[in-house]
Amino acid sequence: MKLETCAYSGYKIHPGHGKRVIRTDGKVQIFLSAKCQKGSGMKRNPRDVPWTVLYRRKHKKGIHADEGQQKKRIKRTVHATSRPVADMTVEALLAQRNQKPEFRKQQREAAIKAAKEAVRAKKEETKRKAVKMTKAAQQPKVKTAKQPKAPKAQIAVKR
C-alpha cells in the first residue's frame, strides 16, 4: 500500500483518497481535501495555517516538539574478532596464504601420490578377491544324484 503526502498540509493520503492536480508546467500536486486545494489556490503559506504539519513543525507542537533536539549519540566501537572460516582458524588461513609456491607444489605432489597409492591398493584388493572367487569356482562340486519320482496313479473318470 503506497501512501502519498499532501502537497499543502503534509498529511498522509491513503489509496482512494485525495485529488491530483497537474499544473501547466507539468508538476503533479496531490491534495488531501478540497480545503487543502483551496488554501494552495489562495497562495496561503502552510506554515501560517495552524492545522498543517508544517505549522506544527515550525511552532514545535505535539510530536514535533522533540524533532529539533538531537538524540543522545551512542559511541560505537568496533571490536576486532577472529572467527574461524570454513573450519580454519585465522592463523591457519594466514599460514596457508603465506606458503611458498615450492611448498605448495610438494604438497600437491604428495597428495597425488597418496591418491594413486590408494587406487593401487584398491585394485590389488579386487584382484585378491577375484583370485579367491576363481579358486572357489575351480573346486569340483559334488552333486548328489536325484532320486526318480514315482509315477502318479492315473484314475479313469467317466464323463
Automatic annotation (TrEMBL):
Protein name: Large ribosomal subunit protein eL24
One GO term (biological process): cytoplasmic translation
Keywords: Ribonucleoprotein, Ribosomal protein
Sample GO molecular function, one term: mRNA binding
Bias kind Basic and acidic residues: ranges: 119-128
Pfam family, one: Ribosomal_L24e
Residue stretches of biased makeup (Low complexity): 134-159
Annotated Large ribosomal subunit protein eL24-related N-terminal domain residues: 1-65
InterPro entries noted in UniProt: L24e/L24_sf, Ribosomal_eL24, Ribosomal_eL24-rel_N, Ribosomal_eL24_CS
Keyword Aminoacyl-tRNA synthetase applies: no
Region (Disordered): 60-81, 119-159
SUPFAM superfamilies, per the entry: Glucocorticoid receptor-like (DNA-binding domain) (SSF57716)
Family statement: Belongs to the eukaryotic ribosomal protein eL24 family.
Species of the source: Meloidogyne hapla
Assigned GO CC terms: cytosolic large ribosomal subunit
PANTHER family the record matches: 60S RIBOSOMAL PROTEIN L24, RIBOSOMAL PROTEIN L24
Endoplasmic reticulum in keyword set: no
